[in-house]
Each structure stands twice: as C-alpha cells, then as structure tokens.
Amino acid sequence: MTDKLNFVMISPHFPTNFETFAHRLYESGMNTLGIADVPYDQLSEGLRQHLTEYYRVDDMQDYDQVYRAVAYFAHKYGRIDRVESHNEFWLELDAKLRTDFNVFGFKNEDMLAIKTKRQMKEVFRNQGLKVAAGDTFKTDKEAKKLAKKLGFPIIVKPNSGVGASDTYKLKTSDELDHFLANRSSQVDYIMEEFMDGDIITFDGLADHDGKIVFYSSLEHSEAVLDTVANGTDMYYFLPREINPELVTLGEKCVSAFNIKERFFHFEFFRIKETGEIIPLEVNCRPPGGMTIDMWNYANDFDIFKEYANVVKENHFKSESKRPYHVFYISRRGDKEYRHSLEDIRQYFGQHLVSIVSVPGIFSEIMGQDGIIGRCPERETMRDLIRYAQEKV
C-alpha cells in the first residue's frame, strides 16, 4: 500500500496517441494500473515503462474479469482513486467500475444523459436551448409518421452511437423504406430534422470542480457524413479565434452535464442562413483522431501533462494563447494528387508538423495519409490546404 494516487487505465494502449496519458500520470508520481486484453509483450516499450502494473484479461467485455482486475489492484495498492479510458466505447464500463468501487467521476446513473441523444435533447431543453426536432422510433409505422411530421430530408442515426457510423441522410419516402427494410434490429434509432449548416465543436477540459480550464474548437471543410458518402477529401482545423457565443453555450453544457475533471467534445450546428448555433450532442471524452495532439501544436504546451496536473493538484498550469491555426488535411488512397508527400514537405517548410499514415479502419474518413500543419494566418492555411489536395 502507498499514499500515491491509484489511477486505473482502461485499454491504455488505444488509440496509440493516448498512451501519453500513462507517461504523464506515471511521471507525476501516480500508480498507473493498466487493464486490457492485449498480451503484455505487445504493448509498446514506452507504455510498458510507464505502467506501474498491467493486468491482462481475456475479454474486456466480460465485466467479471475486469472487476477482478480492479479488485486485485485495490487489494495490492489500496483505494482506487480514478478509473478512466478517455474512450467513448468504454464509457459505460468506466462508469460501472466507478460505481462498484465508489470512485470519483460519472457513475451508472449518469450514463443515460451522456450516452443517448434523446436524453441529451432533454438536458439541452431544460437549459432553455433550442435543439433539432426529432425523436426515437420503434416501428416502421412510427418512423413514417415521424418523417411526415419532420419533412424530408431527415437524418437517422443510432440513439447511442459514435461519430458518423450508421448515420443516414434520407431524402425521400423510398429511401426511408429502404433503410427500414435493412436496419439493424439491435439498434435503437433516432430521427431528426435536417438542418442546412455545418458542425462546429466546443472542446476542452474541466477541473475537479467543473471549471473549464482549457477550451478549443474544431471546424470542418464538410460534414463527416458527406466525406463518407462522396469519398471526398476533407480537412479540419482549430481556429485561433472562437466565437464568444459558442463559448457561452459550451459553458452552459459543461454545467448542465456536470462535467468534472474530464475532457469534453460538444457538437453544434451552425445554421447556414442565420449563423445561429444550436447544440447537437455531447461527448464526455476528448475529440478523436489527432485533435488532442493538435491542441499541443496550437498552444505550445503539453495537454497530457496538464491533465495529470488537474488530477493531482486540480491546477492547469499552462496558458492557452492559441498562436497558431492548426489543421489536418486528408489525402485518400484512391485519388491522384499533383504534389507528392516530399513536395509537401518542401512547400510547407516550417509550417509542417507531421505526416501520418492512417490505419485502415479510420482511413475512410481521415484519408490514407494525414498532413498536420500550423501557421498564424488563415490565408497561409488555405493556400497549404489547396496545395496538398490539388489533383492531377
């Protein structure tokens, strides 16, 4: 037994760039106690060196196995102080473990509001915020009645789901019939009115008391749904300037969903005609992909270290001045580009942060290659994006 904080890390090896959480928590003096189903020798050397102990289970979806792993850690190291995966997939597992071991953070009873889109709408409405009209449906008859009420086009997506997977924009009653004939019987769907606009985000980190200690935003070249449907290139970027109205709405959401000592990723519609900002959904975890690393490039700080500071001392020590726009440019494997990756290295020069290869599972959205750059001026950013995505 020790007086160190005992931090149980669920699936600390995935995604790879999240391994740095283990590095910084370990370096700050905590016991980092990893649980996953990967053999120990398949973990990266860096992760192995920054885990106090690792417990391998056969199946992460077998709760009894994971429970026994945490119980073992509690017996050996004392009271468990934190359980966290930073991953949407394990939100409910994290909450169940926190409930059973009485650990700070979201518990079982919090999951309905932060996992299901219908319940999110209720929380938004209770805050006096406008939301897209819509509801869940069980039967084909209910779906058709709802579609008639909302009017085409409509958006249909899982009531509890991540990203754009299994999400459809349906323009006619025939398309709705096709969806209903082929939909998964295991999934609870929600139908919403289509809003013509783009999605912007309010992302960041709240401290132990729910105070926002860091925030950022994301803007996209097009909706992720369109990128998947059309097989197009996309880019997204972290703007230096963030709309004060978006910040105010984000602060309301952090308070409404009782977010404490954790990352958040809120999505909003920005209506094309009016510029009105309407809340869409909350994600109580960091944004995906390389975004968390892009925060570091935008601010010249270490967000992983700052998270460890918040957990240990409830203090975010760095300043967020956003001296750079930081952008991610996708390049697909099925298109012929005018400029090679080596050309890009030369043309970008000091504005290039890195070029990454994207694993197959993510490449449909993120491209086969991802180019991350940064610069102070928007005009420079637009020129670099144009150069990288120019076709033959």
From TrEMBL:
<dbReference type="GO" id="GO:0016874">
    <property type="term" value="F:ligase activity"/>
</dbReference>
<dbReference type="Pfam" id="PF13535">
    <property type="entry name" value="ATP-grasp_4"/>
</dbReference>
<feature type="domain" description="ATP-grasp">
    <location>
        <begin position="121"/>
        <end position="312"/>
    </location>
</feature>
<dbReference type="GO" id="GO:0005524">
    <property type="term" value="F:ATP binding"/>
</dbReference>
<dbReference type="InterPro" id="IPR013815">
    <property type="entry name" value="ATP_grasp_subdomain_1"/>
</dbReference>
<dbReference type="InterPro" id="IPR052032">
    <property type="entry name" value="ATP-dep_AA_Ligase"/>
</dbReference>
<protein>
    <submittedName>
        <fullName>Carboxylate--amine ligase</fullName>
    </submittedName>
</protein>
<keyword id="KW-0547">Nucleotide-binding</keyword>
<dbReference type="GO" id="GO:0046872">
    <property type="term" value="F:metal ion binding"/>
</dbReference>
<keyword id="KW-0436">Ligase</keyword>
<keyword id="KW-0067">ATP-binding</keyword>
<dbReference type="InterPro" id="IPR011761">
    <property type="entry name" value="ATP-grasp"/>
</dbReference>
